Amino acid sequence: MDDFTNDFTREEIEALEKEVERNPDDAVAWADLGFCYGNLGDHQQASTALQKAVELDPSLASVWANLGGSYASLGNCQQATDALRKAVELDPSLVLAWANLGKAYGELGDYQQAVEASEKAIELEPGLAPEWANLGGFYTSLANFQQAVKAYRKAIELDPSLVLAWANLGRACAELGDYQQAIEASQKAVELEPDLALAWANLGWSYTSLDNFQQAAAALQKAVELEPGLTPAWANLGGSYAALGNFQQAVEAYQKAVELEPGLTPAWANLGGSYALLGNFQQAVEAYQKAVELEPGLTPAWANLGRACAELGNFQQAVEAYRKAVELEPGLTPAWANLGRAYGELGNHERAIEIYRKVLSITDDPDLTRLAQDGLKSLQAGV
């Protein structure tokens, strides 16, 4: 059956090519030729023929719509939006043109325009389940998760088999902090399509947010097995393993995350933390240094860098890191206390005493108070 259809289409194309040779000003023949090329997936030839048709007769709304579709298939989204906009100006009832216009705007990152076009398509045809799902995606890109949830739910109500709508509903619910609903939606997605990595990743993220780290790790491990390039899943998997005390596995997951996305600052910082908990302070220092190089305002990474340097006996580097931490966050009392200790180790007792006194003046934490008092006693006894 497929071979017959393809043969028929080729014959039709040959006939239409002869027709436009005989009558090069026949807009309809050019439009039909473009339509046939499009059916064969030859969008380059289709766009050429359809462009010729609208040059000859700019009033052909459906041809502008097909031209927009061909441009979109070629990845020429700006040209696609121009053509589709022309189509709906000529005929505002073209549902598919509105839908494709929304997608083209989405590809261009103009999500507000995408929402408006998608809503117009839905207004014309409210039962179009995939378009409700697309609308949910555009709202998600605008971080309007409440509206996204409503759109995804409508899509699923119309067509419960829409796997990606279930998966994306899970994500939107999680963004709203409704993790139980997120879990239920993600579970439905993986029931429908067990190999959908995105749904497993969303499921893992939701379990993590509920501190259910064992199930989170299992779901996230499944996600990265299915799609090894899924960076956020690797990073979240690292967090789940760390929460379970499996720091070597956490290191391996974080390493994979930064290998895939070297600019992922939180993964570098968390990698440093996992190395530190394994007692690998040199590697911890290197990871923390990468984190603060990428994001110099990341106070916890500076503080943790100081601790790792101190563990290695590099007290001058520890001082520099702690000073940066308290410069960024003057109320970070533990960093002040550790800074005092580092100055003491360097033999700068006067500065250490000054900082310990500052700690006593700004904290009521019993452990930090005791640390500062003990430090003062030790230093004053030695003076």
Key terms:
Serine Threonine Protein Phosphatase 5, Tetratricopeptide repeat; 22 helices; 383 residues; mainly alpha
Give a structural overview.
- With 383 residues, this protein is an all-alpha fold.
- The chain has a domain at 166-261: Serine Threonine Protein Phosphatase 5, Tetratricopeptide repeat (Alpha Horseshoe).
- It is built from 22 helices and no strands.
- The protein has helices spanning 2-22, 27-39, 43-56, 61-73, 77-90, 95-107, 111-124, 129-141, 145-158, 163-175, 179-192, 197-209, 213-226, 231-243, 247-260, 265-277, 281-294, 299-311, 315-328, 333-345, 349-362, 366-382.
- Helix 18 packs antiparallel against helix 19 (315-328).
- The termini are far apart.
Terminal CA distance reads 97 Å
E-strand count: 0
Total of helices: 22
In round numbers, the mean pLDDT is 94
Question: Which geometry do the CA atoms define?
Answer: elongated
**Poorly predicted tracts of residues:** 1-8
Radius of gyration: 30 Å
What name does the CATH topology of the domain at 166-261 carry? Serine Threonine Protein Phosphatase 5, Tetratricopeptide repeat
Order of helices and strands: HHHHHHHHHHHHHHHHHHHHHH
CATH class of the domain at 166-261: Mainly Alpha
As a percent range, the share of strand residues is: under 5%
Approximate helicity band: over 70%
Q: Which sheet architecture does the biggest sheet show?
A: none
Quick one: CATH superfamily of the domain at 166-261?
Tetratricopeptide repeat domain
